[in-house]
Amino acid sequence: MLYVAVFILILGITTLVWAHDPKKPGANDKCAVCGMLVKAFPKWAAQIVFKDGTYVYFDGPKDMFKFYFDVAKYNKHKTQADISDIYVTEYYSAKTVKADSVVFVIGSNVEGPMGTEVVPVPESKVKGFMLDHKGDKALKFSEITVSDIPGAEMSGHKGMHDGNMK
Q1: For range 136-157, the mean pLDDT
Q2: DSSP secondary-structure letter at 16?
Q3: Tens of pLDDT along 49-92?
């Protein structure tokens, strides 16, 4: 019984160490891709959290995906494998949610801070969103490839991510 209690305690501590909640960007936090101040666009903010507890912020999901697909271009000390969590701001509620909990609508008429945006919406609202705002396709995080992201370019290779969001 003692072994079970110790195991549960260790598991709980490990989970706390590895789980990173989203943080609100500060007044001076800039988008890791374009350099714009993130706090100016709270309805579009996104962030990637690394396993070491560091964060990078984005002024919208489009720039977050650009970073995700080519981490080395923007941070030579990190890789995609270093990512712990990814958060985006859901379009309708403006709440910060895990990127794998929403569907991303691509090609809609909704624009963010940097123009055409990849819009995160709850799966239950995708049909309504696409009726109201058009959209070419709606994809889950794991289905998106670099070719789906407007203006994204890979510096070292082309193709899609491994589909394993942390």
Answers
A1: 84
A2: H
A3: 999 999 999 999 999 999 999 999 999 999 999 999 999 999 99
Domain-located, residue 6 = no
- For residues 17 and 160, what is the distance between their CA atoms, to the nearest angstrom? 29
At residue 86, what are phi and psi to the nearest 5 degrees?
Answer: -130, 130
Instruction: Kindly state the helix (H) or strand (E) to which residue 12 belongs, with its residue range.
Output: helix 2-18
Give the residue carrying structure tokens 């912020």: 57
Instruction: Name the domain count of the chain.
Output: 1
Structure tokens at 36: 């714009």
Within-domain flag for 136: yes
Instruction: Say if 131 falls within a structural domain.
Output: yes
Does residue 153 sit within a domain? no
Beta bridge partners of 140: 103
- Whose tokens are 């936090």? That residue is 29
Domain that holds residue 119: 22-148
Alpha carbon of 2 to those of 5, 8, 9, 59, 104: distances in Å? Answer: 5, 10, 11, 49, 46
